[in-house]
Amino acid sequence: MEPNNEKLICLVVEDEQPAQWALKAFISETPNLELAGTAFDAVQALEILKSRPIDLLFLDINLPGLSGLEMLDSIEFQPMVIFTTAHASYAAESFEYNVVDYLIKPVSKQHFDRAVSRAYERALLKEVLDNSDEALPSARIELNLGGATESVDTADILYLQSYGNYVKVYLEGRMLLATSTTHQLQSQLPAKSFLRIHKSFIVNRRYIKAYSNNSVVVGQEKLPIGISYRQSVMSTLGPQ
To answer: CB–CB of 73/26 below 8 Å?
Structure first.
């Protein structure tokens, strides 16, 4: 959702024409949605995703060639997703991607409206958090640098990285090597502001520029999301 624009830009990826027509009709009747395009397969969808920003995907799981789930695995940074499928058995697997909702075909207008409402609420919440420094508190902590100490405002910390018996604390333009563990430092950080994404990485949410199921971009660095942390990270941030 672009700044000052209340509409979510949508892409329908659906290989069944009747289902595609129904979704297009529902979108046209929904004031806070704008249709960017439609695609019958993942290849077409990926080309559209490269050409313009998309806020919300209506994505069929059973696509010809590359499946909807495989398509999401190939996307660098994932928009919000509402899955559409004729098979309820895919629900458990699909929610590993932290989708907004899951619609069974034929999709009813009632269920469509419910899913869109959830997506819009999530988009608004993300916008509030992205633009509110008050939502992300800061504090001052003392870093032991091995013979010296330095007081650091946590708002200035981009991320922390485990480094053996030390922790690399990255700030804008410099790095401090603290004699501590990430666990010890994490206990001193404002919990709402910092998020552990990997056994070796803790990131400051205010500096997250983009994220996918597998990585987070903080400042100029792309950091991995550990498999065991993926669910909690996606639950906290929501799909991009």
So the answer is: no
The pTM of the full predicted model, rounded to 2 decimals, is 0.58
Alpha helices in 132-210 (DSSP H): 182-186
User: Per-residue pLDDT tens for 143-160?
Assistant: 999 889 999 999 999 999
Same domain, 81 and 144: no
CB-based contact 66:42 (threshold 8 Å): yes
> What's the token pair of residue 61?
């799981």
Give 103-128 pLDDT, tens digit per residue: 989 999 999 999 999 888 777 656 65
Rounded CA separation 163/73 (Å): 29
CB 96 within 8 A of CB 231: yes
Side-chain-facing half-sphere of 211: CA atoms under 13 Å = 26
Phi, psi of 46 (to 5 degrees): -65, -35
User: Do residues 127 and 142 share a domain?
Assistant: no
Give tens-digit pLDDT for 189-203.
Answer: 988 889 999 999 999
Cα separation values, 92 from 83, 137, 226, Å: 12, 35, 20
Q: Within this chain, do residues 117 and 13 fall inside the same structural domain, yes or no?
A: yes
Question: Rounded to 5, what percent of the chain is helix, strand, coil?
Answer: 35, 30, 30
Same domain? 124 vs 145 = no
What is the span of the domain harbouring residue 123? Answer: 8-131
How many Cβ atoms are within 10 Å of 79's Cβ, its own excluded? Answer: 21
Hunting for tokens 């495989």 — which residue is that? 70
